[in-house]
Design a protein that fits this description.
InterPro entries: ACP-like_sf, AMP-bd_C, AMP-bd_C_sf, AMP-binding_CS, AMP-dep_synth/lig_dom, ANL_N_sf, CAT-like_dom_sf, Condensation_dom. It contains 33 helices and 40 strands. The chain is of the alpha/beta class. It is globular and about 100 Å long.
């Protein structure tokens, strides 16, 4: 095994020395003792590539077991001894362990019980010494051993190596398998960078399961001596005694341990004597810059930061031997053989120095896949580059700075806050020993920062004083949105076995302390006026002068309004919606509204006949909106939806594009629009409530096709976007893709689940996306109007109307329409077609069409009738968004504007969108593209002049056309034109539109599309209150007859 060849090198003089016991083994003793483990495993008939779990701590016996398992060409999985039985069971099953080694003197019952339950042999190990020679005493439980001996002798076919598991803080742990080849690559790189020498005496402090044991192996390969701590564990109280007594020269350590040493320095550091320790290697987390100088001044040693993960090994380092290759406060330069790049969230390379993004690593020493987790592989690689999940940037000289975990970044109103930055500022306060910032949910901003601190032993601050004092301190050093909303005093910060801060535990502990989860408060002692003035002062920097002061006239922005509401929520210990600040921006009005809210004063309850959708209370949103049960369960299918449930839009962007600003805008869009974050959760009783959740936004995908056939490549990308599955139960409901044609031209592709949005909503969302983008690029407030009605509000309103029996007239209208002999295309909204539409952001109109009408349109424009049917189903109505943002329905009925209604997907006039330095979006090209799509689908030429005639005077540079997914599906099917009407399948499509019924604003849908095999398929989804089974069958027969008739024409 290449990376263990040092054990046979007569010139290598490495040693393992155990502090406390004084036990020492030289290289020959290490080899012969480890060979004893090898022989024992071979006697148990373990095969090459079998997995073995090894429990222990930083002891000599552990390292000998570790080496012996590798020498047996098995897979070693090191684990600490402090886990619960369930964790060991998971690891044993996941790795398909053939044995588990446990220290004999301390038989860890949790691991032994887990192994026994899975019939995995347990081997107890202990290092013995007799006549000056060391050997490993190994004993196994006889029953398991016999079972192992009788097992099949077929080799596993797996390569030997080291299997570590990630911490699992954001999901179940993932196995990280470093093969012997990867280990050899890493070892060679480490020897030429970190450069241990035979004179080094290397302290080992980090727990064995953290993957840093690989650095310990490198130290042995370099001929150095490993110094193992007394008891096998790091102890800040005895560290300096052992470092001096055994002449430690260097040590690998994590920042938490270094901070502990500093905290205990006055009691434990021998300032009166010469200390041999010269270098601290810091790994595992970024080290605050201020710590470097403190360590040097206190201990006389230098700190050199490294960076790496279990998946990559050490990838960057600061070189002690070269000042030019070392930079304080950074993670250093790449280790030889390792490449470092920064990519943005869209997968584009960030080429400029200082640009932040995700750190990605490429090397032969990096894993190519996770252990039995193909689901994790796809999201973890950009080509050959491994995505670390860490945020950072490279400076002009190539030094890496790590700013934090991407999943731990706090997204406050779309602006990202690094918890590491907040930690460092708080730890600068003399009263603070430790600090950890974390994210908590907030209704308007999405998330806000909070923090937990451990006060120093000499601190004079009380818990009650600490939050205000430390917030004021942070406010002078951080941007306002980065200052923690609340600072909690705790006894200790939760950490993993590798001493990494577990922010998620703090978020779980403190994230639910708002509103109803807190104890009742005595309102008689609460001065609302003072609390409003205090929050106002914190957000605007000065108190209101009079009760008539207006928050926005005093300089407040929409972002500050949301922060004010969040601040008031904390102060008043109740949920304060940010809309209150917009509705009551004047001080005395705001105070009055809050007093009414706190004392339970409520507006008059709505009548039994609601006039229109009303904004739901936060309690209603948390409880979920009850969905009426349907008597026809097959119409209520939810889950994975494909093809026919997407609305797509394509936009031309001319000019430079700030991808990071667009990504933030994407997130902010999800926070603003509830329809993008509503899910349906089926209940055992058959009800399916609609729930509002936190943003489910996926990362934007970015594709660079500068050197490709742009039309063909972009078509394939857009088609994949529309074909991607949506899930009503889990989300997300929107996907955005950026297609880069050149530095000056991009295509923006948006696809939305049709169950939560329509064409009108997409217009609003596109406007909002542009406003957010402008705001992030120019650092100005977006000034968007409040959305008076949301998807959830409209759904609740529909169900209130349903319960009040207000749909009887609508039912009568549709029954009459369907009874007409020439009825073909059915209206798809709740009520009879009307203009203007009811005031909601999730609304769409489509008048019913007759067969004669379809044929008349086709004859007038010299196109086949099937093209009219397709176009009719690609559009419901043409809508105009004027300069004031008012929706106007252009279509009164099909007889008034048949061509516009059937040929133009959606026409947007004077859309107020402008991207900095990007010019206007959209052009006549989009109209031509639409014509080409229909022509390709039908293999008939639909003249461009016809579509331009439909657009009429509204055609201009700010025009956008909606490209419906049905046409994309048709275009992708070569056999579309040759499909036979007799092969229509009208039975398997209806469940796709079940989402419309569940969400409450659709009652009847007839639809048509081309399936993956080129067949034309259609179907009907309906609410049983509108049609019974017989009527539905009759309508389907009419529909099929219409399709057959128009197809043949």
């Amino acid at each position: 095994m290449a990376f263990l060849t040092f054990l046979n090198d007569p010139d290598n003089n490495c040693h393992i020395f155990e502090c406390g016991t004084g036990r020492q083994l030289d290289r020959p003793a290490i080899r012969t003792t480890a060979e004893g483990v090898l022989r024992y495993l071979r006697d148990l008939k373990l095969q090459k590539g079998d997995a073995v779990m090894l429990l222990g701590s930083n002891t000599t016996s552990f390292f000998l077991g570790f080496l012996g398992i590798l020498m047996a060409e098995s897979i070693v999985c090191p684990q600490t001894t402090d886990k619960p039985e369930g964790d060991y069971s998971f690891f044993l099953k996941d790795m398909d362990a053939k044995a588990v080694l446990i220290p004999k003197d301390i038989p860890y019952q949790a691991a032994a019980s887990a192994a026994a339950a899975l019939d995995v042999p347990v081997i107890f190990y202990k290092l013995e010494q007799a006549k000056g020679e060391h050997h490993m005493q190994l004993t196994s439980n006889a029953e398991a051993s016999q079972a192992q001996r009788s097992a099949a002798k077929t080799p596993s076919g797996k390569e030997a190596g080291i299997l570590n598991y990630t911490s699992g803080t954001t999901g179940r742990p993932k196995g990280v398998m470093a093969s012997t080849h990867m280990m050899a690559v890493r070892e060679e790189a480490y020897q030429h960078s970190i450069g241990y020498s035979p004179q080094d005496r290397v302290g080992v402090t980090i727990p064995v399961a953290s993957a840093t044991h690989k650095l310990a192996i490198t130290a042995l390969a370099c001929g150095a001596t490993l110094l193992l701590p007394s008891g096998g564990h790091f102890n800040c109280k005895t560290f300096w005694q052992e470092a001096c007594e055994y002449a430690m020269t260097t040590v690998v350590i994590v920042p938490t341990m270094l901070k502990l040493l500093l905290a205990e320095a006055s009691q434990t550091f021998p300032a009166h004597q010469t200390v041999p320790l010269q270098r601290f290697w810091s790994i595992g987390a970024s080290l605050p810059t201020s710590i470097h100088d403190v360590v040097r001044d206190t201990f006389g040693a230098s700190v050199y930061e490294m960076y790496g993960l279990s998946e990559t090994g050490v990838a960057t380092y600061n070189d002690p031997a070269s000042p030019q290759r070392s930079r304080q406060g950074t993670a250093g330069l790449p280790v030889p053989g390792f490449g470092i790049r920064i990519f943005n969230s869209g997968g584009e390379l960030m080429a400029k120095a200082g640009e932040s993004g995700e750190i990605c690593i490429k090397s032969e020493g990096v894993i190519k896949s996770y252990w039995h987790r193909p689901d994790a592989d796809e999201a973890s690689f950009l080509g050959d580059w491994f995505r670390t999940g860490d945020a950072g940037f490279l400076d002009a000289d190539g030094f890496l700075t790590v700013t934090g975990r991407i999943k731990e970044l706090i997204s406050c109103g779309g602006a990202e806050v690094s918890p590491d930055e907040v930690d460092e500022v708080l730890q600068q306060h003399p009263e603070v020993a430790e600090a950890a910032a974390f994210a908590v949910p907030e209704s308007m901003l999405g998330q806000v920062a909070e923090a937990a601190v451990v006060l120093g032993p000499d601190s004079k601050l009380s818990k009650e004083e600490a939050s205000a004092v430390l917030r004021k301190f942070a406010g002078t050093r951080l941007a306002k949105h980065k200052v923690p909303m609340t600072i909690h005093v705790v006894a200790s910060i939760p950490k993993s076995s590798a001493q990494k801060v577990q922010r998620w535990q703090l978020a779980e502990q403190f994230g639910g302390e708002q509103g109803p989860n807190r104890a009742a408060r005595d309102l008689s002692s609460l001065n609302v006026d003072e609390e409003v003035q205090g929050a106002w002062t914190e957000e605007l920097g000065a108190p209101p002068e009079t009760g008539s002061d207006n928050f926005f006239s005093s300089g407040g922005s929409s972002m500050q309004a949301a922060a004010l509401a969040s601040n008031l929520s904390k102060r008043l210990e109740t949920s304060v919606d940010s809309t209150l600040v917009f509705q009551q921006p004047v001080v005395h009005n705001m105070v009055t509204s809050l007093q009414e809210q706190l004392t339970g004063a409520q507006a008059q309850a709505p009548s039994d006949v609601p006039a229109g959708p009303q904004r739901l209370s936060e309690e209603q949103r948390r409880a979920g909106i009850p969905i009426l049960k349907s008597s026809r369960a097959n119409n209520l299918t939810i889950g994975r939806f494909t093809d026919g449930v997407k609305i797509g839009i394509g936009v031309n962007l001319i000019g430079p594009l700030d991808a990071e600003a667009l990504r933030k805008s994407h997130w902010a869009l999800h926070e603003r629009h509830e329809s993008l974050r509503t899910v349906i959760r089926p209940q055992p009783d058959g009800h399916m409530p609609l729930l509002l959740v936190q943003p489910m936004s996926e990362q934007m995908c970015s594709f660079n096709i500068c050197n490709a056939d742009s039309k063909q490549a972009a078509t394939a990308i857009a088609r994949d976007a529309y074909r991607a599955d949506y899930n009503d139960e889990k989300g997300p409901m929107m996907r955005i893709q950026i297609i880069r044609l050149s530095t000056e031209r991009h295509w923006l592709i948006m696809a939305v689940h049709h169950g939560v949005s329509d064409q009108i909503s997409m217009v609003i969302m596109l406007r909002d996306l542009a406003a957010f983008y402008n705001g992030f690029v120019t650092a100005q407030a977006h000034n968007l109007p409040q959305l008076a009605v949301h998807d959830t509000d409209h759904t609740a309103w529909v169900h209130q109307k349903e319960a009040a029996g207000l749909f009887e007239a609508d039912k009568a209208f549709w029954r009459k329409t369907f009874a007409a002999p020439n009825s073909g295309l059915a209206g798809i909204d709740t009520s009879e077609p009307q203009s203007p539409p009811e005031p909601c952001s999730v609304h769409i109109k489509m008048p019913s069409q007759t067969l004669q009408h379809i044929r008349s349109i086709a004859q007038e424009h010299h196109v086949p009738a099937m093209a009219v049917v397709l176009a009719a189903y690609s559009t419901a109505a043409a809508q105009v968004l004027d300069r004031k943002g008012v929706l106007v329905n252009m279509i009164v009925s099909g007889r008034d504007h048949p061509a516009l209604e059937t040929m133009v997907s959606c026409l947007i006039h004077n859309l107020p969108i402008s991207l900095p330095e990007a010019g206007q979006c959209g052009s006549e090209t989009m109209l031509k593209t639409t014509a080409a799509r229909v022509s390709s689908a039908m293999q008939h030429s639909i003249p461009y002049g016809l579509i331009k005639e439909c657009a009429g005077e509204h055609m201009n540079a700010s025009t956008f056309l909606y490209l419906n997914a049905d046409l994309d599906m048709a275009q992708s099917c070569p056999e579309f034109h040759g499909a036979q009407a007799s092969r229509l399948d009208l039975s398997n499509i209806a469940p796709l539109y079940g989402s419309f019924l569940l969400r409450g604003y659709r009652r009847i849908c007839l639809f048509l599309r081309a399936d993956a095999e080129g067949h034309i398929v259609g179907g009907l989804t309906y609410h049983p209150a509108y049609l019974n089974g017989t009527q539905a069958d009759q309508l389907l027969e009419k529909f099929q007859g219409l399709l057959q008739s128009t197809w043949s024409s």
